[in-house]
Design a protein that fits this description.
The structure is a single chain. With 191 residues, the protein is an all-alpha fold. Helices cover 65% and strands 0% of the residues. It contains ten helices and no strands. The chain has helices at 6-14, 16-35, 46-52, 56-83, 93-103, 109-120, 125-129, 131-138, 143-149, 164-180. Helix 2 packs antiparallel against helix 4. It is globular. The two termini are 39 Å apart. The model is unreliable at 35-51 (pLDDT under 50).
Length: 191
């Protein structure tokens, strides 16, 4: 990718304060969109609202295009953050880490995967040790196998006590995103 080339990466690191504000605003817009799923009720009479309001498909077209653009931007940002070798040198690294953790709960598996790759750049031993398990939970092909083999039980010994505070919130976000994602046969039925 062109963003991983050293001159562009150096420029991005030099301008990280301004650039990361943009990244945070994109993530915050996505998060606020999760909260605002309902449309405000109109105070017009039912007849007036139906006559003046565009159809559902007319409203969805521009919003879908904005969502696709926002998602492409988010994927590019995550690609850039996954290429950063020392993320602790970024401007406000704790906020970047929190946003990346938040994005592990995104419904799009590619965004989840990229956010995990970016979090792995922090070189935390617990994440490095369980990187395959985290990636497997996001992968549609490996999800079932990983879910059965990855034991978070304290008695299993697979997940150590000191790793639990770091990994369990990530696993919970990933699994919740998997549960709320509508994929496969019967995915369009109401839940």
């Amino acid at each position: 990718r062109c963003l991983a080339r050293p001159p562009l990466l150096k420029l991005a690191l030099d301008q990280s304060a301004r650039l990361l504000d943009w990244f945070h605003s994109i993530v915050d817009e996505w998060a606020s969109g999760l909260m605002d799923d309902t449309e405000p009720l109109s105070e017009d009479t039912p007849g007036d609202a139906a006559a003046n309001e565009p159809s559902r498909s007319e409203r969805a077209a521009p919003e879908d295009e904005v969502d696709k653009r926002r998602q492409r931007l988010l994927v590019e940002w995550l690609g850039l953050l996954a290429a950063v070798e020392a993320p602790r040198r970024l401007d406000d690294p704790t906020r970047v880490y929190a946003q990346l953790t938040r994005l592990t709960g995104h419904p799009d598996p590619s965004i989840q995967q990229l956010s995990i790759y970016a979090l792995l750049r922090w070189q935390q031993p617990a994440m490095q040790r369980h990187r395959d398990n985290l990636a497997g939970l996001v992968s549609a092909k490996k999800f079932r196998e990983t879910l059965t083999l990855f034991s978070v039980d304290a008695d299993s010994g697979q997940l150590l006590a000191e790793e639990r505070p770091l990994l369990l919130p990530l696993v919970t976000r990933i699994l919740f995103a998997q549960l709320t994602r509508r994929v496969g046969r019967g995915g369009t039925k109401s839940s």
